[in-house]
Amino acid sequence: MGLEPFSADDPIFSHESVLRDTYTPDDLVERDRELQEYQNALKPVIKGEDPKNIFLYGQTGVGKSIATEMILDRLDQDQQQYDYLDIKSLNILCKGLNSSYQVSVKLVNEFRPPGEKIPPTGYSPDAVLEMLWTHLTELDATHVLIVLDEIDSIGGNDDILYQLPRANSNGNVPPEETKIGVIGISNDFTFRDNLDARVKDSLAEEEIHFPPYDAPQLENILRQRAKKAFEDDVLSNDVIPLTAAFSGQESGSARQALKLLYKAGDLARSRDETTVVEDHVREAEPLVEAGKVEDELASLPTQSHLTLHAVLRLSEEDELPVKSNVIYQQYQQAAEAIDADVKTDRTIRDRLSQLSLKGFLDVDERNKGSQGGSYYLYDLDIREDVVRDILEDDDRMAPLYGSETRTLGSF
Ligand SMILES: Nc1ncnc2c1ncn2[C@@H]1O[C@H](COP(=O)(O)OP(=O)(O)OP(=O)(O)O)[C@@H](O)[C@H]1O
Ligand SMILES: [Mg+2]
Asked: Residue ranges of the Cdc6 C-terminal domain (predicted)?
């Protein structure tokens, strides 16, 4: 049959972009308590006083980033009526930034025009911090709120989380010049639990937890978006409750629920049907789940990607299952090949257990026999091609997958 003409006719969606992650809803439903706590934590700022540092945590897709965006917009509007205030905010997505150093560089560059940006390497950490203090001091504002979203990317390298919240009290940035407040956001509970006590003290003056949504809450969120996204009378009655029930059980994530509803609508449209029914949701569910695994894999930090790469190599050579020391040798070579920090085998064992917890690896405990004690054997628990596709797409990993390394053979 070949190609059909493109057609803009769409009996299903009126504004499908409303279901995308990039869309900003008019209101945040089902988050009144969290929004109130959040606004309350920012109360000192609007009174012109020193900000409290805030730490926001909760699983993925529960509204942490969107709530922050809305609150800061509102603060920006409301401050106009107070002459004594000039609050600025800086929102940094830390995804892909693997150390405090990289976060500091990114912050410094936020203040610099094109042409004066500093490169990602080459300065000492202290020099970069000095630049940051100068920019913050010279900033023409009474307050600056620095949002570090997805802060877990920096892993154990969390010096910036110590330095920034204390910049005023340590005299690095005089508070009479600029008062600094830090808002850290994370969906990684291990990161929160492992924060150094001195970091926790200063960063988490106020902790706000965003719990997962239950099915009735997801229903309300979906209804709000569906009204705008779909044509009238396209959704059969059970579609939203079923979508909410699936996502409520699975993850409690609004992002996941919206994806599922979008996919169900898309399946109906691709078949030239004029209504979305329960079966579309059931069919969409495994498709969205598979996509979630890929997203999760892609968002892992470089050190986890290196660890997975090591396991993948062993899997390709039919060596699995293996003990962690074998994985560690492969890991070391890979880390050196891409010029990354080579972590200790203890750190890599932690990564392996995190990857197992997330369901990417399979781990089997074996007894050593007469000497007592036990050890672990690791295997890959997802398809090789899925892992390979993701690692190939990570720029940091390119030297391991680019054509040059192929001609050198595997190491
Ligand atoms: N209460 C809500 N009402 C309407 N939409 C919501 C609500 N909560 C979340 N969403 C939507 O769900 C999606 C995910 O929200 P958001 O990006 O804020 O999640 P997050 O908690 O920051 O997740 P992550 O930890 O993965 O960054 C967005 O599209 C957002 O608009
Ligand atoms: Mg977020």
From this structure: 308-391
Best of 255, 260, 292 to mutate for ligand 1, by most ligand atoms within 8 A of CB? 255
DSSP string, 322-390: B-HHHHHHHHHHHHHHTT-----HHHHHHHHHHHHHTTSEEEEEEE-GGG--EEEEEEE-S-HHHHHHH
Structure tokens at 198: 């001195």
* Cα angle for residues 35, 38, 41 (degrees, 5° grid): 150
Going from the N-terminus, what domains does the chain have, and what CATH number goes with each?
Answer: 32-209 (3.40.50.300), 230-297 (1.10.8.60), 300-408 (1.10.10.10)
For residues 170 and 115, the answer to whether their CB atoms sit within 8 Å is no
Q: For a pLDDT cut of 70, what percent of the chain falls above it?
A: 98
Residue 95 and residue 381: Cα distance in Å, rounded? 25
Tokens of 238: 């059970």
pLDDT tens for 243-288 read 999 999 988 999 999 999 999 999 999 999 999 999 999 999 989 9
Asked whether 35 lines ligand 1 (CB < 6 A), one says no
Quick: pLDDT tens for 6-27: 888 899 999 999 999 889 998 9
d(C-alpha 360, C-alpha 381), whole Å: 5
DSSP classification of residue 260: H
Nearest to 165 by CA among 147, 189, 149, 150: 147
Beta bridge partners of 145: 89, 181
Tell me if residue 148 falls in helix, strand or coil: strand
Establish whether 225 is an annotated binding residue: yes
